[in-house]
Design brief:
Blueprint (H helix, E strand, L loop, with lengths): L6 H15 L5 E7 L6 E7 L5 E9 L5 E9 L4 E4 L14 E5 L7 E5 L1
Antiparallel strand pairs: 1-2, 2-5, 3-4, 3-6, 6-7
Length: 114
């Protein structure tokens, strides 16, 4: 039995295989204590020479409370600090887990325990 595939079918299969490989966005995650004593500040850095769009930061505290923050664009090698001021007064507690995803990337960075 001979199988025949159209170019369109092959393109879809290749896309699915590439997505399954799970390329994560080129973002490094760091942390530091808040200078005003309000939890942890997460530092995100785009380690690439390309713009990253729709960067989504998901944070889950040890007690299960979850917050999400979206950065519209991170320019090449740009760093972004995320703490209680940008999270409407929610201090990020020690022991939280953070996961970062971005548009056009199949996998997220993390979860990483803070």
């Amino acid at each position: 039995m001979k199988l025949r595939y159209s170019a369109c079918t092959l393109a879809v299969v290749i896309c699915l295989l590439l997505s399954a490989c799970g390329i994560a966005p080129p973002i490094s995650i760091g942390q530091k204590e808040s200078t005003v004593g309000q939890g942890i500040v997460i530092s995100l850095t785009n380690t690439s020479d390309k713009h990253l769009h729709e960067v989504v930061v998901d944070i889950e505290s040890p007690d299960g409370e979850a917050k999400q923050f979206v950065i519209p664009t991170l320019t090449p090698h740009e760093s972004f600090n995320l703490g209680w001021m940008k999270l409407d007064g929610w201090p990020i507690p020690k022991g939280s887990r953070v996961k970062v995803s971005a548009k056009d990337f199949a996998m997220a960075v993390g979860p990483q325990k803070l």
